[in-house]
Amino acid sequence: MKIAITSLENNKASKMDPRFGRGAFFAVYDTENKEFSFYENEAKDAQGGAGPKAAELVVNLGVNKLLSSDFGPKAKAALEGMGIEMLLYSNEVKTVEEILLENS
Amino acid sequence: MTYKIAIASGKGGTGKTTVSLNLFYTLQKQLDQKIQLVDCDVEEPNINLFTKGELHSVSDVNIKIPVIDSDKCVYCGDCASACAYNAILFVKSISHIAVLEDLCHGCGACTYVCNQPDVIVEKDKKLGEVNVYSLENGNELVEGKIEIGSAIAVPVIGKTLKSTDENALRIIDAPPGTSCPVMETIKDVDYTILVTEPTPFGLNDLKLMVETMRKMKGKFGVVINRAGLGNLAIYDYLKEEKIELLMEIPFDKNLARIYSEGKIMVDEVPAIYEKYVKLFDKVKLNLDEANSYS
Ligand code: SF4
Ligand code: SF4
Predict the structure, then answer these.
(1) What does the domain layout of chain B look like in residue ranges?
(2) Residue B110 has pLDDT above 80, yes or no
(3) Which of the listed residues A102, B44, B156, B190 has the most CB atoms within 10 Å of its CB?
(4) Which of these, B106, B141, B125, B149, lies nearest to B60 by C-alpha position?
(5) Is there a contact between A94 and A76 (Cβ–Cβ < 8 Å)?
């Protein structure tokens, strides 16, 4: 399974990015091979539809479960439509590594 | 006269609609010709609350949006790549495709690029409507209005302006802000009256509007509403930039009360009527000069 969260930087020590559609990076943890990978959110500067576009990008990465403190209504609808598990989560202290390990 | 004069402001609540209404009623008293008030504040048109006209025509503004048959789709993703508005959600790995109707601008690019037969068909989606109300003296209010929940204003504004009478003098109330809907409203007008307040926020919004006007090479001047509030920085700015100050409306509790009662200031206060007569004289001078050169 792959689980993901938006992160402020592209490394494991980064904090989570509270925004989903306009978050800077996606931190993805693969529970099978126990690897972390980071991807730039190419949707973050989209004029409109950043939320659903970001949803499309993460689902394309093979992610099945997503954490965010704010998905936004359009991204939420898109993710529901694609059957992706969503978890509302907020923490400004922990690193994305800690958060993903705890929630996987 | 068939001039198109827009009233705009960098943000809402500066008195833009008050200026549109009062200018209209002033001209209605002064001129013996057809005048149209045009409400392009399509998200929240409210001029009709004041003019109380009789609705005589309604026309819908529609766009064509795609409907994708997911059984016939081969999931090539061409349509999603062609869509400039992120309105097609496409994930190849899970064979998922969906049209996000709220984001679709009806450009037709997806239908054009799809090379599979009968996968995409188009259906009408209503974006808004244009309402025409009869007022006194054969004058009219032309009002654009977007559907609740729709965020796409530009085509509705375009159709509203197209529905106006080319032989009428048109007073156009623009939407607030400096984004596409405002540009669409003022791109073909003869003159734009910018309404602002003498506060730091007002000055900031005015500067953005002035930038927009200069980019579009449009003629404009400024009306200061609630003069006497705030500070004088705005006057220095106008002087430095050589921008014409067309009129000042003083901050006055009596005027605020007249507005809140839904009445028209130029009907109630002769001194204000005089101000609007002078305002139009200045605008007209600009326009007539420009025309005599061309
Ligand atoms: S009509 Fe244009 S905006 Fe709408 S989905 Fe197709 S390509 Fe996108
Ligand atoms: S272009 Fe046509 S066939 Fe290809 S994904 Fe879009 S709808 Fe399906």
Answers:
(1) 4-51+136-293, 63-126
(2) yes
(3) B156
(4) B125
(5) no
CATH number of the B63-126 domain = 3.30.70.20
The answer to whether the CB atoms of A48 and B98 lie below 8 A apart is: no
Hey, is the C-beta of A80 within 8 angstroms of any chain B C-beta? no
Instruction: Say how many Å lie between the CA of residue B107 and the centre of ligand 1.
Output: 5
Cβ atoms B7, B39 nearer than 8 A: no
Subunit contact A82:B91, Cβ cutoff 8 A: yes
Which residue ranges form the domains of chain A, and what is each CATH number? Answer: 2-102 (3.30.420.130)
Q: Can you tell me the distance from the alpha carbon of B140 to that of B164, in angstroms, rounded to the nearest whole number?
A: 9
Class of domain B4-51+136-293: alpha beta
Measured between beta carbons, the chain A residues lying within 8 angstroms of B96 are 59, 81-82
CA atoms within 13 A on the CB side of B286: 21
Residues 51-70 of A with CB under 8 A from B: 52-53, 55-56, 59-60, 62
Q: Which of A49, A55, A82 faces B85 most closely, judged by CB atoms?
A: A49
Q: State how far the Cα of B102 lies from the Cα of B154, in Å rounded to an integer.
A: 14
The pTM for the full model equals 0.78
Question: Which residues are registered as beta bridge partners of B169?
Answer: B35
Q: What is the ipTM, given to two decimal places? A: 0.80
B110 Cβ closer than 6 Å to some ligand 1 atom: yes
Q: Binning pLDDT at 50, 70 and 90, where does residue B102 land?
A: confident
Amino acid letter, B186: I
Question: Percent of chain B beyond pLDDT 90?
Answer: 81
What separation in Å is there between the alpha carbon of B116 and the centre of ligand 2? 7
Contacts 24+ apart (CB under 8 A), B228-231: B228/B198, B229/B197, B229/B198, B229/B199, B230/B197, B230/B198, B230/B199, B230/B200, B230/B202, B231/B198, B231/B199, B231/B200
Mean pLDDT of B24-45: 96
* Alpha-carbon gap: B101 to the closest alpha carbon of chain A (Å): 11
- Kindly list the residues of chain B whose beta carbon comes within 8 Å of any beta carbon in chain A: 85-87, 89-94, 96, 98, 100, 102-103, 151
Q: Which residues of chain A have pLDDT under 70?
A: none
